[in-house]
Design a protein that fits this description.
Elements lengths: L1 H22 L15 H9 L3 H13 L6 H24 L2 H26 L4 H18 L1 H9 L9
Helix pairs in contact: 2-4, 3-4, 3-7, 4-7
Length: about 160
């Protein structure tokens, strides 16, 4: 009974204090809705794209494919440049040591998961290892889509901003 009473009091006092503490953090003052550019809307407005054409351009930028139509290629080049600039801006905001800490944490979770699965199953989980190798490779390939799209859709000798 005493333990339950302590838990109730801790919840009644702890939750409001936690909410006050989280609400007073500086991170909330840095949030600015709409601060990031809108590549989808910008491309539709600047190049007068229909929704179907915008979907084609988005697909080409995501997967790094070449488009046949010159107008769509120019839109893809602008869109890819905008996405690359956004990525670089985010990368500059986050410190290298923070990214390394996250990577080391993920590796630690991976090793702990492998150990736990080996102990639980009694054998090494090759199927999990295959998935843990395939997914980062696929995600890494997807991240390079805008750069590939920029390379294959940009006309040689032009800036792509006509």
């Amino acid at each position: 009974m005493t333990g339950a009473l302590i838990v109730v009091v801790a919840i009644l006092l702890g939750l409001p204090l936690l909410a006050w503490w989280v609400g007073s953090r500086r991170v909330w003052s840095r949030l600015r809705p709409g601060a990031d550019p809108d590549p989808w809307g910008d491309a539709m407005r600047k190049f007068g794209l229909t929704p179907q054409e915008t979907a084609q351009v988005e697909s080409a930028v995501t997967w790094g494919r070449r488009l046949d139509d010159e107008r769509l290629r120019r839109a893809a080049v602008q869109w890819a440049r905008q996405l690359i600039e956004q990525t670089e801006a985010r990368r500059r905001i986050h410190s290298r040591s923070g990214r390394i800490a996250v990577l080391l944490g993920l590796i630690g979770v991976l090793v702990a998961g492998l150990y736990w699965m080996t102990v639980r199953r009694g054998e090494f989980p090759w199927d999990a290892v295959v998935w843990w190798v395939i997914w980062p490779a696929v995600l890494g390939w997807l991240v390079g889509g805008p750069r590939r799209a920029l390379r294959v859709n940009a006309d040689p000798g032009s800036t792509g901003d006509r």
